[in-house]
Amino acid sequence: MDKVKGRIHSVESFGALDGPGIRYILFMQGCPLRCLFCHNPDSWHLSGGRETDSEEVVLDILRYRRFLKGGGVTLSGGEPLMQPEFAAAILEGCREQGLHTAIDTSGAVPLKSCQHAVDTADMLLLDIKAADDALFRRLTGRGMENTWAVLDHCENTGKTVWIRHVLVPGLTLDDDLLGRLGQMLRPYTCIERVELLPFHKLGEYKWRELGEAYTLSGTLPPTPEEEEKARHILQEYGLTVR
Q1: How far apart are alpha carbons 216 and 213 in whole angstroms?
Q2: What is the pTM for the complete model shown?
Q3: How far apart are alpha carbons 190 and 183 in whole angstroms?
Q4: Is the CB of residue 177 less than 8 Å from the CB of residue 229?
Q5: Tens-place pLDDT, residues 148-172
Q6: Distance of alpha carbon 51 from alpha carbon 209, whole angstroms
Q7: Could you report the per-residue pLDDT of 177-203, keeping only the tens digit for each?
Q8: Where does the chain have alpha helices with state H?
């Protein structure tokens, strides 16, 4: 395995929400998006976090190997594909050790810059911010074209994908938009499931600490009834929704 330097934000050694089974979650530094509901704004800048290298990361992962049986390793962030060589080196090291790997990504990085890392992972957790490009730009500051290019590539290569979509009342929690999302996702055979994630404000304090304006302070999380309705809308398009 080649040793590649990179920067990490944090580690969760016993995660159960970011891919199948119990997983080692590596939160990597850097993200090109500025999502209004981001809960890790301290991961945005590539200069932040801690410098390390891929060999050190894999060695740390192997300390928890016996807990990862039936699970694996997930690269998250920030946006892990902002450091594509670093991500690919970690994924290759995990593959050499027989560990299942996933990338939790927004797909915001152009595919030509990160295809090797995408191809090396066993699966992608692809976060689609919105089904409408104008809303996508409002939420993130960028367009949606790179995200769909990554999904198309996964379809063409047979890469397993779990779609993630955050339900934000007043923004993405909208019947018409959810129906449009269902229509857009229905043709893809690579999509194994869709995870609907309720909006929360657990990272709001980080925005204050960074001196950033948090515009969703008055937004409440979706109710259980709203979440169930959203699941039902997507299920009508033949999608497995969790």
Answers
A1: 9
A2: 0.95
A3: 15
A4: no
A5: 999 999 999 999 999 999 999 999 9
A6: 22
A7: 999 999 999 999 999 999 999 999 989
A8: 54-62, 84-96, 111-120, 133-140, 145-157, 175-185, 204-210, 224-235
